[in-house]
Amino acid sequence: MPWSKGDYPPSMKNLDSRVRNKAIEIANALLEDGYEEGRAIAIATAKAEEWDENHPKDKE
Predict the structure, then answer these.
(1) Which of 22, 27, 34, 52 holds its CA 20 to 30 A away from the CA of 58?
(2) How many domains does the chain have?
């Protein structure tokens, strides 16, 4: 089941919205590639947090 900004897994509820939106994007791509939901959520959350660290909001 694909997720959206308004309908996402409960485990993503405490993520910053920027990280959560990226995690949703990644998780949906993983689902399309055949990953099961639980695995897609875990991978997407980790990768979204990694992405956030490497792409700061304010580039100075």
Answers:
(1) 27
(2) 1
Percent of the chain that is helix, strand, coil (3-state, to 5):
60, 0, 40
Query: Per residue in 3-47, pLDDT tens?
Result: 999 999 999 999 999 999 999 999 999 999 999 999 999 999 999
**Which domain range does residue 32 map to?**
13-54
- The answer to whether residue 34 is domain-embedded is yes
Q: Are 44 and 19 in contact (CB under 8 A)?
A: no
pTM: 0.90
Cα 8 to Cα 57: distance, rounded to the nearest angstrom: 23
Residue 5 belongs to a domain: no
